[in-house]
Design a protein that fits this description.
The chain has 15 helices and 22 strands. With 533 residues, it is of the alpha/beta class. The chain starts with a strand and ends with a helix.
Length: 533
């Protein structure tokens, strides 16, 4: 079995892995290996902003489905997780948000994570951000993750923003500024008409460093230990089992599904579960794979009178024209991320901080598992979710075989408050679509149709149509208590030379998309590692 020696091995080439590989290889004394199970980010869809709509059900994901969701129609729901260099940042909708300061203050003051309050993590947000439009105390301008305004929002997106204002929601030009509440246009991880993923922003500039090796198509089989010290990783590459050894640290960055899976296969997790699969228990850590939290979408889909949305470009001749426009000028519909408009709002008057987030899509059936409109028609979509759901789920192993998919049970709608909040959001979506700015374009509401009226019917619709928003966190929870998987330096409790640095360490969900916060965690982790903390 071939072996190689490195100072640091990073397992997982998603957002966090790319950040860490770039930062750790800045130190010439380090010799860094980055392992990614997926392929290179070569596909054109990765780099076209509109490509998001083509990738949630593509071969660049693991093809996961949840276990039957007992509180959500007993459905097995598609659960897209990226399998490509750059991870979620290579296939997501490029929306750049980071939540409110109170989210991180809660981590520090209520959830046992001192050192992770907003004032502690804000410098890392600023260090990662390369904003091309905003420059103040809330924004960085020189970071690797490029951020820009939408150059020319789609007409239907403009109508949505106007409809929200007619409903009584204030306009907000910056969801990452002093005030999150309101409606506006999202800033995007797009630069000069191309996606700026963590692979492009962080990893590409570092790829020529002689002390950084990136191996794609490398499926990690297990972590290798000497006693309680992590010494390396065994991985499958091109059909051959290989071993890499780390002098300093192994850093697991495989995400909220992949990280607990690798830990459990390596014998670190709930002892009874591991023994039931014949896995030798190295450490009984019950919370590995527990505490899974995710934002749970509900979609409102409308059919339009005419072809005002991006759906019109499904016609071959218009698609060809749009492609040519993008190839020549990096403009036009291909330069749209589809999810251009955003809204943060409160589900009731008793809420002082937004507890709902809405994404407006200038098209219908843009995402895997979402219903569309009648053939030949054009549509629009407004999805929403509760920002801080109460339900918690699990990730467990189906088999000790690393090639087998894990058992993912997010427990969608497993808490009554989650159902209530989401149903309130659906009512608000309907009200927004009834405002004059949008109503004049809408032929009919397809989902939910007019037969869904009462509160009970709305809640039933929520349970039977909800889906993931692709924001899983928490399965290797960070904290100060003995039950947490990692401490506040992201070190795995009871082990040496082993850290976890990705969204799985979030103690709870933050009130926004999760890509920018994941980059922040990795930025801070790079300092912890380089400073020997």
């Amino acid at each position: 079995m071939p072996q190689a020696e490195y100072s640091h091995i990073i397992v997982g080439g998603g957002t966090a892995g790319c950040v860490l590989a770039a930062r750790l290889s800045e130190e010439t004394a380090n010799n860094v290996l980055l392992l990614e199970a997926g392929g290179r980010d070569w596909h054109p869809y990765v780099h076209m902003p509109v490509g998001f709509a083509k990738m949630t059900g593509s071969g660049m994901t693991w093809g996961y489905k949840t276990e039957p969701q007992r509180h959500a129609g007993n459905r097995r729901i598609p659960y897209a997780q990226a399998r490509v260099l750059g991870g979620g940042s290579s296939i997501n909708a490029e929306v750049f948000t980071r939540g409110v300061p109170a989210d991180y203050d809660r981590w520090a003051n209520e959830e046992g994570c001192p050192g992770w309050a907003f004032e502690d993590v804000m410098p890392y947000f600023l260090r990662s951000e390369g904003n091309t439009a905003l420059s103040d105390a809330w924004h960085g301008t020189d970071g690797p993750l490029g951020v820009s305004n939408i150059a020319n929002p789609q007409p239907m997106t403009r109508a949505f923003v106007m409809a929200c204002q007619q409903y009584g929601i204030p306009y907000n030009h910056d969801f990452n500024g002093a005030r999150q509440v309101g409606v506006g246009y999202y800033q995007l991880n797009v630069v000069e008409g191309r996606r700026c993923s963590a692979a492009r922003g962080y990893l590409d500039p570092a790829r020529r460093r002689p002390n950084l090796k990136v191996v794609t198509g490398a499926l990690s089989q297990k972590l290798i230990f000497e006693g309680h010290r992590a010494r390396g990783v065994a991985y499958l590459h091109r059909g051959q089992l290989q071993t890499a050894n780390a002098d300093c640290e192994v850093v697991v960055t495989a995400g909220a599904i992949g990280s607990p899976k690798l830990m459990m296969i390596s014998g670190i997790g709930p002892a009874d579960h591991l023994r039931s699969l014949g896995i030798e228990v190295r450490a009984d850590v019950p919370e590995v794979g527990a505490n899974l939290a995710d934002h749970v979408n509900i979609d409102l889909v409308a059919e339009l009178h005419d072809h005002e949305s991006l759906d019109r470009y499904r016609k071959p001749h218009l698609a060809a024209w749009a492609g040519l426009q993008y190839a020549l000028f990096r403009t036009g519909p291909v330069a749209s991320n589809v999810v251009e408009g955003g809204l943060f709002w409160c589900s009731g008057e008793d809420r002082s901080t937004p507890d709902l987030q809405f994404h407006f899509l200038a098209g219908a059936a843009a995402e895997d598992g979402v219903g569309g409109v009648a053939p030949g028609r054009s549509g629009i979509t407004l999805n929403c979710y509760g920002l801080r759901p109460k339900a918690r789920g699990t990730v467990r192993l189906a088999s000790p075989d690393p090639l087998q998919a894990p058992l993912i049970d997010p427990n969608f709608m497993g808490h009554a408050e989650d159902v209530d909040t989401t149903a309130r959001g659906l009512k608000i979506s309907r009200d927004i679509f009834s405002q004059p700015a949008l109503a004049k374009y809408v032929r009919r509401i397809v989902l939910p149709d007019e037969t869904v009226k009462s509160d009970a019917e709305l809640e039933d619709f929520v349970r039977n149509h909800c889906r993931t928003s692709y924001h899983p966190v928490g399965t290797c929870r960070m904290g100060s208590d003995d039950g947490s998987v990692v401490d506040t330096q992201l070190k795995v409790r009871g082990f040496e030379g082993l850290r976890i640095c990705d969204s799985s360490v979030f103690p709870s969900l933050i009130g926004s998309n999760t890509n920018a916060p994941t980059a922040m965690v990795a930025e801070k982790a790079s300092d912890l590692i380089r400073n020997g903390q």
